[in-house]
Amino acid sequence: MEQMTLFENSMPQPLAARLRPQTLSEYAGQTHLLGPGKVLRRLIESDQISSMIFWGPPGVGKTTLARIIANCTKAAFIDFSAVTSGIKEIRTVMQQAENNRRYGEKTIVFVDEIHRFNKAQQDAFLPFVEKGSIILIGATTENPSFEVNSALLSRCRVFVLRALEMEELISLMKRALDDTRGFGNMNIEMPSEMFEAIARFANGDARTALSVLEMAVLNADLSGSTVTVSQETLEQCISKKSLLYDKKGEEHYNLISALHKSMRNSDPDAAVYWLARMLEAGEDPLYVARRVIRFASEDVGLADPQALVTAVAAFHACHSIGMPECTVHLTQAVVYMSLAPKSNALYMAYEQAKKDALEQLSEPVPLVIRNAPTDLMKQLSYGKGYQYAHDTQEKLTDMQCLPDSLSGREYYLPQDQGMEAELKKRLKKIKAWKQETFSHSAD
Hints:
It is a single chain. The protein is an alpha/beta fold. It is 51% helix and 8% strand. It has 21 helices and eight strands. Helix 12 packs across helix 13 and helix 16 packs parallel to helix 18. The longest helix is centred in the C-terminal third of the chain and has 23 residues, at 420-442.
């Protein structure tokens, strides 16, 4: 065993390590799993843990939760790293677990970053999980559906851990200033907006929030016994100029409006700038992605149907990989929207239809397009005269589908941009055909 030097023993641990929760009451976040009466909390408190996978972004407490389980359980607990371990180490640990089982003792094996194991390494766990030699707890930042063998995954329950909310991060940082394991023995002055700034920068990552807080305190100004954290110090610690803003305040809406209107005005440079302003200020990339999806139909629509596909793909990319990697996907979507032909015909169509729908909620569905699954309905003329468009050469009929009071009403008015110009021509031909056919029928 390697002997540690006196100097190594005296080195203080990072704040995040010193403040690592030891009990569920100290644990921050994941109330959907660990709140009173929630399933995972009940399993931990009753020491009835089964094999499971913790899936979530970095810094949300996957390893910490596993260690809390280790403190609560009567089972033997083995902490295992996928980064440093191979097949040989797995077999050694499994043999130890098998010996424990023979003496009636359960063994929980925690595998951090289980997605780093290849198929052969994951397969080495499978027979021991199947026969109950071990209870496996894996932690991963990657989607276990793709990164964990299906046979192993089917024997594990997946718990999704979420990024911490701003309020949870702020509470965690304030506890760090009060707790003697943190900076509880120091008199620190730090405005509340700085906690919010760090929380936004951390983007749900508790470890990042505590690391930035620690740097800010250790580099702060000392006057007598008071440590004062300045805005300049904080900005240096996060290595960027403060662009932060209140996500619930006016500036939040000003910036998303600036992005939307820049894309609408076909200005990709301005759009990318406002995108960067929001993301670097700590805005949730999924919020931006949702707004881009809305833009794809509201301002581009059928002028370029591919816009919606691009926007939805960007949303899924953001959901899959998060910040900061997803910035390029959002940039691709924002530039695409900016350069796409524009049409608000779909937006206008719905708004007009909504107005009529709200004013005429009691309008009956025309009998001709009602379904008639029973004899009584058929006797009441449900579906009588219905024309099946696929039975016609033109794939068209002159059947009226709107209520009588709205007959002839037009909602979708395609414009002359992009693909919608072609749709406009087609719609014009369809309406002309129906008008001509209707005129002949009337004669």
